[in-house]
Amino acid sequence: MGLNQNTWKINQWYDQAVAGNVSYSGSGELWAWGRNQYGQLGQNNTTEYSSPVQIPGTTWKSGYKEIAMYNGVVAGKTDGTLWSWGVQWAGELGLNDTVRRSSPVQIGSDTTWDKVIHGDRSVLATKTDGTLWAWGYNGEGNLGQNNNTVYSSPIQIPGTTWGGGIGFSKTGAGFAIKTDGTLWSWGNSNNGALGQNKGPGQNRSSPIQIGSDTTWSKIVSGAYRAMATKTDGTLWSWGYNHVGQLGQGNNTRYSSPVQIPGTTWSTIGSNSYTSSATKTDGTLWCWGYNDNGDCAQNTNGTSTSTYDSPVQVPGTTWSQVIQSKGTNSMGAIKTDGTLWFWGQNGYGYLGQNNRTFYSSPVQIPGTEWSYATGGNSGQNIAAKNI
């Protein structure tokens, strides 16, 4: 992408020149690789790919939480439409059925979709008017409807000020930040995942506020746990902690938010049992499960090599970490727009045209990468600015 293209608006040029390519959220391409048994790579087939292949189209949104993946995919376009493909068991493609798709299909006709996040058989999305919508599986109140009814088309969660971040755990806990900076949760409460000081059997089918703080800014979630930042740069975690994934220097479960040391945290991400985050100085840190080299410490893990406090990944130009629903790999983007992955590689989902494990970051070919996310069963999808 050249900075001298005269079709750019001035604010888009400024973002590129000053903040780096990964800050620009505009038209983009989507690329996918890895396992494809359900057509989740959007290629109109079920062929496995160990190198990135392009999903048709060049008007996909390319910013933060505009693409979501579990075993199905939901992604937005620049015209505000929302599209889905892959497998579904409980209507999580939002198409009013349970049919698998191997190519993108539009969800309804609305043109005001904003952010989207995928959980296990459930999806959460916001619109530009501040409304929050959910669909799919609802056995633990995952959809915030004060019931356990499955919905195969989007249904609104009450309220019109859901303008902040959203999160959905692999195990059925939903999270959303309002425009006033408050954080809310609902769904599966096992292991304290809701941050409400509640445990098993205390699921919530409607949103309830976590504490009284009004400075929450970002939220991500793994298996039975979550992690969030505040506007002061602090980082907080809660829930399941059997391999130190909460970054507290122990394996204690916490059912309310506890702070991870430091005040300069920036972007956050996770897979099921490994956490990662960047700091404002461009450093990247990982902690938790490391049996597949998930923490990028150049050593394939063993059952005793988990990290219960953050450890640094080499380099000082990291800008964004990847949110994944699986348990096998991690990834991050650098300020130069390059995309890097590491960990297990059983289905070629590190994009290296092989199945070799890597316990240090390896680059996905190309630059201009702006966002990426991983699925549950061995696949990744990434957006590239154009």
Provide structural commentary:
The protein has one helix and 29 strands. A hairpin with a 4-residue loop joins strand 16 (225-230) and strand 17. It is globular and about 45 Å long. The protein has 386 residues and is mostly beta strands. It has a single domain (25-385), classed as 7 Propeller (Methylamine Dehydrogenase, Chain H). It has one helix at residues 10-19; strands at residues 27-34, 49-61, 67-69, 72-76, 82-86, 101-106, 113-118, 122-127, 132-136, 151-157, 166-168, 173-177, 183-187, 204-209, 216-222, 225-230, 235-239, 254-260, 265-270, 274-279, 284-288, 307-313, 318-321, 323-324, 329-334, 339-343, 358-364, 369-374, 379-385. The strands form seven sheets. Strands 2-1-29-28-24 form a five-stranded mixed sheet, with no helix packed on it. The protein has a four-stranded antiparallel sheet with strand order 3-4-5-6, with no helix packed on it. A four-stranded antiparallel sheet has the order 7-8-9-10, with no helix packed on it.
Quick recap:
The protein has 386 residues and is mostly beta strands.
Counting H and I runs of at least 4 residues, what is the number of helices? 1
Briefly note the CATH topology name.
Methylamine Dehydrogenase, Chain H
State the end-to-end distance.
Answer: 6 Å
Q: What profile does the largest beta sheet have?
A: 5 strands, mixed
Sheet-strand content, in percent, reads: 35-45%
Helix coverage percent: under 10%
From the spread of the alpha carbons, the general shape counts as globular
Q: Work out the radius of gyration.
A: 19 Å
Low-confidence stretches: 1-24
Structural class: mainly beta
Number of strands: 29
Name of the CATH superfamily: Regulator of chromosome condensation 1/beta-lactamase-inhibitor protein II
- Provide the spatial order of strands within the biggest beta sheet: 2-1-29-28-24
Number of domains: 1
At the first level of CATH, what is the class? Mainly Beta
Mean pLDDT figure = 90
SSE pattern, N- to C-terminal: HEEEEEEEEEEEEEEEEEEEEEEEEEEEEE
CATH architecture title: 7 Propeller
